[in-house]
């Protein structure tokens, strides 16, 4: 008597690549991290390449320039009480952005403790720091353009490449900060509304706060390099 073999027993196991595609397309974890965190790391890696190219290009242009480069201490000074204070605005901007990293880290800590109200409030504070930073950057740009006459194609204080490199790099970074502010506010509002909570308001997944924190810490880190190369060199 011939035994009947079921189709399931005769089916060949899927190949490794097919299984890999099936796992990833079903939103499985990749490399022991969630898809959201993995994609943020990939985005930040690509952004690192872009900023590295910008800063390398800036250093190359500055070293190769035959025209004297403007003195940052004089260009970015503020007149306080009749005296020129070098890099005062830049120091305040740096302090504000670095402080925002502290509030963002606290927000991530409260998120993992499932204290979503405190986490959301700290994200709003972080976003407020970001708004202050961008506002001071707008003031800095306005001063250079309206008072100093700096343009992307020219600069009355020295090397003409100063304007193009300055506006390109600081503008690109300011765009990242502005996008980060919108991102933080959006996540904070959704957090307050309980959009990341599980059934019955328990067991929520607040990893989105950590993912937003990764982006914000990256923006802060990039500013450290811009500050060192553009304002202190």
Number of strands: 2
Number of DSSP helical runs: 8
SSE pattern: HHHHEEHHHH
Ends: how far apart? 89 Å
Strand numbers in spatial order across the main sheet: 1-2
Quickly give the structural class: mainly alpha
The amount of helix comes to 55-70%
Low-pLDDT segments, ≥5 res = 1-13
Shape: flat
Strand content: under 5%
Mean pLDDT score: 86
| Biggest β-sheet description | 2 strands, antiparallel
Q: What oligomeric assembly is this protein in?
A: single chain
Rg (CA only): 25 Å
Set down the secondary structure blueprint:
Blueprint: H1 7-10, H2 16-25, H3 35-64, H4 72-75, E1 77-80, E2 83-86, H5 88-112, H6 116-147, H7 161-192, H8 207-231
Antiparallel strand pairs: 1-2
Transmembrane segments: 38-65, 85-112, 119-139, 166-192, 213-232
Pfam family, one: COX3
Family: Belongs to the cytochrome c oxidase subunit 3 family.
Overview of the molecule:
Helix content is 70%, strand content 3%. The protein has helices spanning 7-10, 16-25, 35-64, 72-75, 88-112, 116-147, 161-192, 207-231; strands at residues 77-80, 83-86. Strands 1-2 form a two-stranded antiparallel ribbon. The longest helix is centred in the middle third of the chain and has 32 residues, at 116-147. The protein is flat and about 60 Å long. The N and C termini lie far apart (89 Å). Mean pLDDT is 86; it is low at 1-13.
């Amino acid at each position: 008597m011939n035994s009947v073999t079921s189709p399931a027993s005769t089916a060949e196991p899927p190949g490794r690549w097919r299984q890999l595609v099936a796992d990833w397309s079903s939103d499985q974890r990749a490399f022991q991290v969630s898809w959201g965190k993995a994609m943020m790391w990939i985005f930040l890696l690509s952004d690192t390449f872009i900023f590295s190219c910008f800063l390398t290009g800036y250093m190359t242009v500055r070293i190769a320039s035959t025209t004297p480069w403007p003195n940052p201490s004089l260009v970015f000074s503020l007149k306080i009480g009749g005296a020129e204070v070098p890099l005062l605005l830049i120091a305040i901007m740096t302090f504000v952005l670095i402080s925002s990293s502290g509030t963002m880290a606290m927000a991530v800590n409260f998120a993992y403790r499932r204290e979503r109200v405190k986490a959301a409030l700290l994200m709003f504070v972080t976003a407020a720091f970001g708004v202050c930073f961008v506002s001071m950057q707008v003031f800095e740009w306005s001063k250079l353009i309206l008072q100093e006459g700096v343009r992307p194609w020219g600069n009355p204080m020295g090397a003409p490449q100063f304007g193009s490199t300055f506006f390109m790099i600081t503008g690109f970074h300011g765009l990242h900060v502005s996008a980060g502010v919108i991102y933080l506010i959006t996540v904070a509002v959704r957090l307050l509304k309980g959009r990341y909570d599980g059934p019955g308001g328990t067991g929520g997944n607040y990893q989105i706060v950590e993912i937003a924190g990764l982006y914000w810490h990256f923006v802060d880190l990039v500013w450290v390099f811009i500050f060192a190369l553009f304002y202190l060199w």
